[in-house]
Every structure is written in C-alpha cells, then in structure tokens.
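Bug: token stream looks shifted between consecutive jobs. Job 1:
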Amino acid sequence: MFGRVVRAHRLRLGLTQEELAEAAGIALRTIRNVENGLIMRPRLGTVRLLATALGLAGPERDRFQQAAQSDPAAQSDPAAQSDPAAQSASATQSDPDRAPRPDPAPEPDRPVPPAQLPADVTGFTGRVEHLDQLDGFAERDTTTVVISAIAGTAGVGKTALAVHWAHQVADRFPDGQLYVNLRGYDPHGRTMEPGEVVRGFLDALGVPAARIPEQVSAQVALYRSQLAGRRMLILLDNARDAEQVRPLLPATPGCLAIVTSRNTLGGLIATESAQPLSLDVLDHDEARELLTRRLGADRCGAEPQARDQIITTCARLPLALSIVAARAQQTGFPLAQLAAELSSSTQVLDALDAGDPLSQIRTVFSWSYATLTEPAARLFRLLGLHPGPDTSRAAAASLAGRSIREIRPLLAELTWASLLAEHSPGRYSFHDLLRAYASELAETFDGGQRDAAVHRILDHYLQTAHRAATLLAPRRDKVDPPATSDLVSPEVLADQQQAMAWFIAEHPVLLAAIGQATAARLHTHTWLLAWTLNDFLRLRGHWHDSLIIQHTALAAVDWSEDRSGQAMIRRELGVAYARLGRHREAERPFQEALRIYTELGDHNGLAWTYSKMAWSAEQAGRSEAALQHALRALDLFEATGDRRGRAQALNGSGWYYCQVGQAEKALEHCRQALAPLREIGDQVGEANTLDSIGYAHHHLGQHDAAVSCYEQALELFRTNGARWDEADTLVHLGDSQHAAGRTELARTAWLGALAILDELGHSDTEPVRAKLLALRRTGPPTRPSASSGRLS
C-alpha cells in the first residue's frame, strides 16, 4: 500500500517521521496515519508535498503519485505495480470519475453557473484527515445524495474547512456552487428562514423572481426541480438546526450538500443519512503549523517556548490562533511579549474555558479591540447595531455621526486590526461572533447613545432610499421623510442608474432595516422605508418581498396618526396582492383605502386608488370593470384639477377602451392626454400614451401608424431609462411589424424586448419566447400583447 512506499523512501533518505513532516509542511499525525495505512488515498496536495520533501522527480515522482491514487488491491499485485498500463486501468476502475468522458453537448441559453463560494482561506493548514473524509464523501455512489454535517464549537474552523475543501473540488461540480450563511447563531435572532434562502438560490439559478410560487413548499419543489440533472455543490453555513436545513437539501443524484453547524444535527444523520464530520481543536502540531505559516519558520523557530505557550493558552482554537498571529504581524512584538500579555489577561480563563462557545474568544477579540484608537473603537461597537449584513462607508459614517472623510481612516483601522473585512470596494462586514462582541461592548459602553445611533442609521437608509425612489419613479406619490440630523450622511445619487445600483446593493440591508425599525417601534421609518421600495421591487419582480413588507408597513402605519399614509399603504398592499394573482385578497385593502380617502375628503387619493384598481381588474381579466374604475378616476381628477392625474387617467381609460374593443374611443381619450403631458414635461407619461395610441392603431389595422407611435415612445423611454416600459413597447412594435409582414423587423424587436426582460428577471419572457418560436412556423400574424403592468 502507499504507506509502505512512503516509509521506504523516508528510510532511504535516513529521515525520521518528524523530519519528513517538517520538511513537507505536513502534520506529524498525517505522516503516521499514512505509513500505518489509516490514510490509504491521501489528497493530491498532500502527495505532492511528500514527493517534493522526498526529492522525487520525473518518472519516479509520477509512479509515487500514481501509487497514492491507485486501488489498494492493485498495489499488492507486483504485475500491476510494474505495468503502467495496468496501473492506469486500475485507477480508472477504482474511480469511474477519472475515466475520460466525451465533452457535453452545448446547451443554448443556459444561465452562467452560480459561483457563490466565499474567498478561500489564505494559508489554510491542517485538517488533512477531514479533507480526505470529505473527498471520500464526494466520491461515493453517485446515485446517492451525500450530506456532510460539519459540527464543532465556535471558532474551531468549520466554515474555513468547508470553504477550503469546496474550492478544491469546485471543478467536480460544473453546474456551479451555491452558498448561504444561515445565521443560525446571530445574536439578534435574524436567522435566515428556508423560504428566504430558497428564493435566493432560485434567483442564482436564473429563475425570474416573478415566476417563483408563493408557498414555501412550492418554492422548495421548484428549487429541487432546478437541481435535477445538475452536478452542484451546496454549502449551507452556520445552520441552527435540522429543520432549517431540510428544505434546502437536494433530492436528486449528482449534488452534494455540505452543512456546518455548532450542533451535531443528529436529526439529519438519523433521517437524511447525513455523514457526520465533527471538528475538535487542532492538535499541537497543526496549531504550530498554523502559526508557522502565518509568521514564518524563522520567527516561530527563534522563540519555540513562547510559541508553544501561545498555542496552549489559546487552547489550539484556530480562530484564536489566527487573531494572535494577526496581532504579531501587525505589531512586530516578540512572541514572548505577546504570550505574556495573553497569559496575564484577567479574562483569558473565561475566554478559553470550555463554557459558552461565544465567550471562549472574547479576550482574543479584546486584544485587537484594545489596539484601536478611541474613535475606531467606538465605530466598532456601533457597527454591532447595524442591521447587516454589510455596510457602506456612508452608512458607517451615519451610524457614528461622523463625516465620510472622518470615517475612512477608522474603517481602514478596523480592517487592519482584522475586526472588519472589506469584502468588496467600499463595503464592509464581520462575522457573527465579532458582531456579537461589538454589540455586547456597545451595550456596556454606549448605553445612552444606542438609541440615537439606531435612529441615525435608519435615517440614513430612509433619506437615501427616498432619493433613490424619486429617481426611479419621479411621477409617484409625494411623501416626504421626516427631517433628520446633520450627523446623518445619505448616499449621493445622481441619476436613475445610480439609484437602481444602490437599491440592488442595499436590498437585503433595507429589508433588515425595516425589521430593525419595527423592533425599535419607529413606526414612521418602518412604513416609509416600505414605501420607498415599491418601485424597485416592481421593476425587479420581487413580488413576495413586496407583499411581506407591505404587511409590515400596514401594522406600523396603523400605529401612527397619518391617515393618508394608512390609506396609501392599503392601496399598495392591494397592488402587491394583485401582482401575485391574489385578486380577491386585493379587494379588501383597496376598499379600505377608498373608505379612508373618502373620510378624509381626499379626492386625489381616491382617484389614484381607482387607477390601481383598474389595473388590478384588468390583470384579473375583468376589462369592463377596469374601464369603469378608470373612468371614475378620470372624473375625480377632473374635479380636483390635477392635470397630471387627469392625463394619466385619460391614457388609462383609453387603454381599457381598447381592451373592450372600442379602439376609436381609445384613440380619442389617449390623444387628449398627450398635450397636457407634454406641457407638464412628463416624458415617461407621454411615452406611455404614445404606446397606447400605437396599440389602438394596431387594433384598427393601421400598422404603419402604430410603428411610428411605438418608435417615438421608445426614444422617450430610452432617454429616461425606463427599461421595463421599453421592453413592453418593443413587444408591441414587434406585433405590428409582424402583422405588416415584416418578419425580420418583428424578430429584432422581440429579441430586444427579451434581452431587457431577462435582465430584469421579469415573468413576461415566456410569451415573447413563444412569439420568436412561432416565427419558425407558418401561421397568422401575432395578436398584439396586452400590458402586464404598465399602468400600475
């Protein structure tokens, strides 16, 4: 077996096991296990290190590596050992995945495989047996889904091991890798729910958000259907319990789920045939190797006693050792001084005791914290109050009540001290343990300032989100956020593109901020934050998020005395229901909004509500009811003298006239809307009306006139960055070109629409694909498509 080959080469060179371990940079335990036959097929990286340490090169090195990967039975056959062809055949038989495979046939329009793994751990050391175990799990019968539950105490390196191994085997899973931090031990209780995770995975797998079912069970079924026939790696990090994990597990061969948790997850082992892999602290050799990799052999070798004292005092806990190493690198202090400081700490016994895992590394964290200047230390503490999962510079500045110019060096100081990570330019995060430590410190030292800091960070997100929402939809209701302190630094957003980019980056933070505002009973912040997200969620197709936050907003706004806000949120809740096809449930909040606006005597509010109800009725297939609602809105806008509202209602009623077969009446109404919209300068409203006029011309068989209107509308949409509206009009343009017999021009328009809808992840892609597919066949001209949400 391979262990005898290693021993023979070692004895040939006159090396002890200790000397070979040191020369190869491998733990002594690994050398012993290999030679004793406990590890018969070590990892390729380990074999290469051994070959180099043994001075093997050329054919001899090849034979050495081949011996490590061959079937143990073949190694006992002298003929197989002497015959390279036999060795190759044996390797192929023992590992079918090593046999040559034909290149897979290309799959058109397949989305780019997700690659969500966090960055690999720099200087990862030790854990050879565990890596080998994981290799073994991955190489088992491919008809079985293998789940590895990696359990262990806080800071023992579960995530580091899982991420490092996942990077090593990523090429075995050509369909991609999914990753999520389930936050099972978040100190604030913000554990990721399975439904939230599944929706994120479906998004990563290219499923448009608008097509995701409402029920979690249906979402899970769709997720598992997406995994069918694929080879994917799913890394579920920091799981709370088995119930949090079960809906996220694949149900078909070819996929591998790796789960990390502080619990053993016995339920998964018992009911899901999970393979348990428990981590303990490092052995002494591995801990020494970790410090040597981080600090260099010369520095560690010069102070072996201090080095070993650090290892013992840190209880061989990987996270503690890594933080100590970082302090040694940053300060340049002798190891003896660092060891003395650690040993003399009054909290070290509590930190490294076998008690509460969260408290085991508190003192180690305090080391890095103690090196900070007071402004940086205060910022670190306050970051524990941030809703998470990450923060921008401006948000950190608002939290601390400082300028962005002042905050930059403080963030750099925290990053240098390994208390914060800049995971992407200008965005910072830290893991759950550091967050818990920071929050604990804030409660101790900043008790009187905590509420003010939370208020500032929520003001930051509300002020910026309001600006972003106004840029995305300048024609929406006017709702002004409350005045805020000069200590708050909103993000600077110049245009619609920047607004959209900000919403995309901050989407998970804003959802968390709504939860934080709710917990803090800052009701105005809660419902106004929900209001700011309406158009972004509509444009991105996040209908489920929209419904959830509107329910949260409703509870918050009802605590306030803002009756207009209460009506507005009910109206938006009705729209959220309607977008999910739940039209019966939409009716109640719509009617409640009408009642409140009637009590207030707010005719404009009534008019906008009837406009939304008209759209909802059309989506439900009730075109006559939609027309009646739109005409009611028109009457109200005429009574109030709202020119913009009247113009939109004219366009809306014209559109619905077309839906009920009265195209001439539609032209009359829509043409009346054009002049006031142009006078007001509402270019998007003008473009929408031109699209409606083109639609009416199409129904009248006047295709050239329709094309002209559509082209004018497209120019205005593109000028204003209205991407979904541009796609909708391109669909209509394609319909008219096709009806006029201009097939290639129709194809060009529909392809343009499809590209935009795919970019937005919108549900309207399937009808457009069907139109393109129909071009390959002989058939009648395509019937014009109805809008799926333009007027909403």
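Job 2, same session, no restart:
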Amino acid sequence: MEPRGSRVAFGGPGIEPRWSHSNKDGVGTAYSADSHLWFTLWRGIVTEVYFPRIDRPQLRDLEFLVTDGETFFQEEKRQLTTTTVRPADHALAYRVTAADPEGRYRIHKSVITDPHLPCLLLNTRLELLKPDLQHQLRLFVLAAPHLDGGGWGNDAMVINVLGQSVLVAERNGVALALATNRPFVRTSVGYVGASDGWTDLSLHRTLNWEFDRAPNGNVALTGEIPVHSKTEFTLGLAFGESIPAALTCLFQSLSTPFEAHHRRFVEQWNRPVMREVPLGKTAHDGGRLYRASRSILLAHEDKVYPGAFIASLSIPWGASKNDEDRGGYHLVWTRDMVHTATALLASGDHDAPLRALVYLSTRQRADGGFPQNFWVDGTPYWQGMQLDEVALPILLAWRLQQAHALREFDPYPMVRRATRFLIERGPVTQEDRWEEVGGYSPSTLAACIAGLTVAAHFARARSDSATATFIQEYADFLESHVERWTVTTRGTLVPGTTRHYVRIRPASVDEPVPDEGPDLGWVHLSNLPPGSPQDFPAHEIVDGGFLDLVRYGIRKADDSLILDSVDVVDRILRVETPFGPAWHRFNHDGYGERDDGSPYTTWGVGRAWPLLTGERGHYELARGHDPDPYLRAMERFATSTDHLSEQVWDTNDRPSQHLEPGRPTEAAMPLVWAHSEYVTLLRSTTDGKVFDRLPEVAARYLESPVPRPPREVWEFNRQPRSVEPDATLRVIAGQPFRLHASDDAWLTVSDIESTQTGLGLHFVDLAALWEAGRAWSFTFYWTLSDRWEGRDYLVTATERPIPP
C-alpha cells in the first residue's frame, strides 16, 4: 500500500455537504451478526451506508456516471430511468436497472453486502443496446464519503495496492476503500462542486483531472471502469477502523465470486422463516408485504448492541440537512422499538423481542425512566421525557412472560424501577407520543394504565401483594380520571358534538398544581409557518390517540364517547387517497412538506400517516367490524419494494417533485412503526382479536369491573387543591415520612406514619371528608433526616359538576 502521487485537488473544502433523500427504495444488511454494515437505496443508487453500528452513517451516496467522451454526460440518479425490485421473498437483496432514456444502454446491478464482512457489493453489468458505442461509452463510479457522520473534514486519496489504484478516504478513525474486481482505468479524488469527478466530467466529458489527494473537506472519489462488449464487474465498498483494515476487508470480499456471496446472503435471510407464523394467507398480496416487513424490522437491529432497534434507516428530508443535524431517525426510540418487538412477537419470533427487552433494561436510567431517544450505546440525543416510553417496556416484558419467552432473563428489576417512575413522575407527561406538547394525553394514559396493571401482576407473582395493590390502585386512579383530564364538553369542531376526547390537555411537569375545571387550556404548536397562529384552544385539537384506550382493553369500542370522538377525528383528520384512507396526526400539524412541495425545515404541513390506518383497523376489529379495508390500504400504500413510509402526500400532484396522492413524501421510509403496525394488524385479523389487547386490563376495567372507592392522589409534582367529598386522599412521597394532618383547621391533629412499598415509595391515606367545604391541612416530618417540611398544604372537598 503506497500513495499514488502528490497531486492535491483544488477548491477545498468544497460546497456545504448535505445528506441524501429519505424515501428509500431499499434498505439492507446481511442477516449474520458478523457483517456490521447497512445500506440504503434511493432511485436505484446507493445512499447512506452505516458502519460499524446502525446509527453511524458513513456515506452520502454512490452512483454511476456515463459519457461518450464528446456529446453527452449522464448521472444515474438524475438522467437515467431506474427500476428497483426485491427478487427474493425474505432476503433484503435488490436488483436495479438504470436505463438511458434514449435507448443506448442499460446498467444492471445486484446489491447486497458481504454476508460476513463490512463490504457493500454491487455486481454490475453494462448492456450496450447500440454496439457501435462500445469504443465510445465510458463508465465511472462516483462516491461521496461522509465518514463518522459528517461531510466536512474527510481526507481522500488514491493509493496503489496489488498493482492497481484504489480509492480511499478516512476521518476520525473510520475509513473506506473502493475498488472493483476489474481494475480502474483512471481514478481521481476532489472537492465536491469544485474538483470532483462529477464536475470534471460534466465540464469536459472525460476525466481530465487525476488528483491523488483531497485533504480535509467535502470530498468525492471517482474511478473509471473499463468498458468492453460484455462489461460485467463487482464493485466493492469496504469499511474499517483504518485504511489498512478497510483494504483487507475489500480484497477479502472481492476474492470470493459474487454468486457465492449472493447465495450465502439469501440463505442467511431464509433462516428466520423457520420461526414465522404463516400470516400471509390473511393478506391480500399473497403475504409479500408481511415477509418484507418482517425482514425490514429485523434489519433495523444493531449488531454491536444486539436488541437495539432504530426507528428508520433514513434521515427525513436529508437533502436539506447538513452536518449540524446528526440525528435523523437512526436512533432508538423506545416507543418505536417496543412496537417493533411486539410485531416480531406477533409474527412468531421470540428471540428478537427478548433481545430488545434485555437491551432496553440495560439502557434504563437510574431513576427508572428512558431517554426520549438515544444512540445505540445509550447516549441520549433529545432530552424530553415521555411517560408512554416508560410504560411500554413493561408491556413488552409482560407479553414475553405470557408467551413463555423470557428464558432466564428476569425483567422485574426494570419493571419495578419503571413503575416507580410512572407513579412518581406521572400523570403529566412532558411530551406525548407526537413529541411536541406536555400534559394529560389519552394515549399516554392508556399506556400507563395498562403498564401499571400488568406491573401489579408482576409484583403479585413475587408474593408482594401489598405493593401490587398499591400499583393497581394508582392505575385505577388514572383510569377514573381519564375523561376528567382529556375530554372536552365544549367541542366546536363538529356541530352538535360538544363532548369528545382531545389530543392533550396541556400541563407542565414542573408545575405542581394541576389544571382543574372545564377549560382545558391552550396548546402551543411550534412547527407552523412564521406569522401564523401557533396557540389553539385544547378542545379544538384532536388526534386518534384515545383509540389506545380500546386497544389495550380499558374502554369499550362502542362506548358513546369513543364513537363521538371517532366521528370528530374522521371529519377533521381523515384523508381519502387513491389507495385507501389515511389520517393526519392531529389538526394544525406542521410536520411535513409544505404545500409547494418544498421540504419540512422547522415548519411545514403535516401529511397523512399510513400507520394510523393500521391503528384504525385495530379499532374496527375491536368494534366487531371488518378490518380488511384498512389492511388492504396499508398494502396498497407500500412501494414496489415493499416499503411503508412515515407520511404520504395528500393533496394535488406535483410531478416535478415526485409527489402524488397516497405515495411517499420525503419523510422517513421505511418507518419501522408503520411496518410493525401492519404486521400486528395482520396477526390481529388472522386471530379475529386485537393482539395488543391485554386480558388482565380488560378483565379489570371492562369484563368484570367492581365498584372502587374514589381516590385522589397528592404528590409533590402534582398537588390537587380539591378533592371530591367521598374520595380518599392518598399522599405519596419518595422517602419515609410522618404526615401531620388535620381535617378541622388544626383544632385537632393526627400524626400518621407512612406505609412503605416495594417500589421505595411511601404513602398515607387520608379518609374521605364526606361534605363539601371541609379540608385536609397537612405537612411532612421527614423521619430519615429528622426535619419538618416547613410548609403546610391544603386540599378542600369540592363538589364536581357531573359532565353531560
């Protein structure tokens, strides 16, 4: 290995780097855990490639350039007509055909990874449709490294290895090497927009510049591939922690025939089929989307950190994102991850969901919570707190236990910590599932009620009946307050319907006094156009999150309030597309392309979400209706390579921007949450019952409900000023205390020792006051630190009006 020469490219550091488009035609990796490489495709070209972890993009794109040396220059992604197919049922291998619109040639590619090494392999055949072009046509490969997740600061070089030129790049301890099994004719490196191969070829129709080095910039690598009457070759793009490591991987991969790699790649992906529940018979496409979805879900798992499933191998609106935006969707969201694990469990896989549970348990924070999202090593990215992301791992643990799939793993330490977090930090969530607004959310409350109910069963199985009762009573407290917190009686969206669920009742986790009364407050939405209203009455903002109350078994599907709320959501959020119905997340959503088709950048217009079609299918099944129309719609939303997108376009065609109704936008694709919802709906439809419905939850709240005395809960993060006269007031704190309390304005006083629970929480129950106007006054004596709280608190018995 030696440098080819010392010619340094001009024009550094190049133009500002950007990522690639997000609506992928393909994502892939080897099924083997040995190959630490993931790739993506868009319009037939390779886009982001991830190494050595699934959250580390290392490449912007890789494509072919074609010229005849004199009259034309064509770029694969812009000028050629491409088709991408996934020929195998289970393997994430792709076949791409890129055709010259004038019928002169076609490029055929088969794209896989080495089954055991971090090397991307493109077996390529150039088909000459006009033989006289054989001596004129010239073929080049262009690669744009974004090593260590960034376009700036890359070093590119041409080096000589085994008598041929190899293109390499490195940055921050990551390197790549690019070559073919047919040595390059010419090679060069340069700065993007100034001295790179694309600029050279577009200007000169030939590679005039042959630079050896392009240090510290936004760089591109270019190699010319020899053209013959039957041009066929295998291109390898390998990665390593150094240039020697990448080179070793590259030549090891290229030394094995592509056909052998491909055969092994497909064989590996056929292995998980042995654990597959045959749900394809229920589908309307012969099971094609089911098989693809299962593989896509499995492909989104990291291999350095087994069990870490990310949300999507994509960067939404990536072509408008620079180095400053390091996130994208290649991060772990606990919510998306649990949906993935649940779908895989529904498909018959017990191994991957258990890996997910073990991984999540090792990433739980000391306080019992989980970061809003995080890199696969557990480092938080965004800093929000979402209660449903704490409750959902408890549900996953319970489902695995019920499936006898926990093996030797004990989830109870995780469950216990998460349960404490939910009780100590709830019921107000800093953010709901749409990650923008804090308060009382129907969908979040549903997850918490269900999670706490099964947590109580976990505790009871440990012979801790007292803690189990404490947990269940808190779940009952939440369940009895759902309508009080999240239902408006002043609805104006649909004439004649004044009472319905809202998206969220705003409240702050930092404000200890909760909102009370019929006025639900105002919702602030921050991703709307500058100058437009951003604050709306909470009773005028709706979403379908309340359907989780039905999904888990907390409310009946035909409950009149549910039915009225469904009608409101349909009138406000439902969108009819050529492929079936879809729904917006909520009204006034700004997360999506703008009306002119330009990308979402801090503001836009929220588009329709296919996963919400799946959620609606689950609701219709729970109601006793046919879910098939929604199942069929999701299948029709899928692309030709069986990908489901985060959002689909929902207004007039914009052909120049490739936007048409019901087809993917530039949001994330594939979105694992959408694929998870499809697989779970397919299982639910096959079984004739909602897979996510928890019998333990339904038994308590629907099937055999028993009268429960009313209860109000007082905690330092939530300090109600009033209580119904017949309700017990439970006071909870995180350490032992003695409650100094009076119900007659301190004329008489009781000192009550707190009761300890197995969660490390302590509580005192104050008896019902029984008549309006009376009040509990109390303060705390902290027994461990031998000190008084130094402040009195007051809770007054007040009659509440009965909602209509």
